[in-house]
Amino acid sequence: LATKTGATRRLTQSLELKGMIAFKQGDYKKARIFLQKSIDANQKNNTVTGSSNCYLYLGRIAKEEKKYSEAFEYLQISKTSYESLEDDNELWEVLYETGNVFFLQGANDSAINNYKKAVDIVAKLSTKLVGSEEEKNKKGKNDWYFMDEEVKQNRLYVLWLNQKDTAGKYVQKKITKENY
Q1: DSSP class of 144
Q2: Which residue positions in the chain have pLDDT lower than 70?
Q3: What would the pLDDT profile of 30-39 be if each residue is shown by its tens digit?
Q4: 134-167 pLDDT, tens per residue?
């Protein structure tokens, strides 16, 4: 049974990865097929955890295709799944993408709300990533070395919404308060 479960998990991960690669290559039709096959295999084997990221990518595809209602549906499924798993490492990305969809529709207040939630999670996660007080002091209190490029882009999206002062102060205050 363990071997079958492991093989099934590897299959679903392989399908998910193929879907992600196809997405990155702009082949949304192929990406949808692989991602849906991964979801189907997870459902067949009663594995909920594997589908969360697939729904995130289906939401990204729908966003790129300007199918915003569909994007919201997929992103909501992904969000609910990550929340039930208490997986903040991925939840912030769903909020970020949801903010992007709102932004593309001109719903700036809703976009900012989602970006703020994403930043809040990143601030909480970054506390875990920074390490000991000694490491924090060595690196410098305003050094954002622990943030990857997507997180920095997320912060920039908030700033692009013509809310420079409010957004910039919020992000700086939140990151500083949570981490130092």
Answers
A1: -
A2: 1-6, 47-50, 126-180
A3: 999 999 999 9
A4: 554 554 444 444 444 455 555 555 544 444 445 5
**Encoding tokens for residue 34?**
């692989």
**Could you give the residue ranges of the DSSP H alpha helices within 25-163?**
28-44, 52-64, 68-85, 88-104, 108-130, 133-139, 149-160
Distance, in Å, from the CA atom of 108 to the CA atom of 163, rounded to the nearest integer, reads 10
pLDDT the model gives residue 11 = 84
**Could you give the CA distance from residue 96 to residue 83 in angstroms, rounded to a whole number?**
15
Task: Calculate the average pLDDT of the chain.
Answer: 75
With CA atoms as reference, report the closest residue to 155 among 115, 109, 100, 111: 115
CB burial readout 4-42, b (16+ within 10 A) else e: eeeebbebbeebbebbbebbeeeebeebbebbebbbebb
Residue 88: HSE in the Cβ half-sphere, 13 Å Cα cutoff = 12
Q: Which amino acid is at 149?
A: E
Q: Are 154 and 170 in contact (CB under 8 A)?
A: no
Instruction: Name 57's Cβ contacts closer than 8 Å, sequence gap at least 6.
Output: 16, 19, 20, 23, 31, 35
